[in-house]
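Pipeline run #58 for the internal structure catalog. This entry was flagged by the ingest filter as a single-chain record with no existing model, so it goes straight to prediction. Upstream metadata was stripped on purpose; only the residue string is passed forward. Reviewer on rotation: M.T. Logging verbosity set to normal.
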Amino acid sequence: MNYIGLIIGLATFLTIGLFHPLVIKAEYHFGKRIWWAFLLAGLLFTILSLITSNNYASIILGVVAFSSFWSIGEVRAQHNRVKKGWFPMNPKRAKDYEE
């Protein structure tokens, strides 16, 4: 039996599951300006994926890289969701949500 597809699928599922609350917490504490950290993480994991000799590790690192890149847009979307009242606003950064 070949379990590689299931392992990669599980790793992808867990990565997405990790990034969802990570984006919410990052936007709450740092606002939209945290997008560059996701960009740097995406670039780092892209490089690691390219230089890793193990194919399966390379695939998982690539999934993490593109989840990081996706999170750049999600941080901005999360900011808009907070403005709509769908998520709690950090009272220390109330000015960030003013029009």
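catalog note: The mean pLDDT is 95.
catalog note: The radius of gyration is 16 Å.
status: ready for reviewer M.T.
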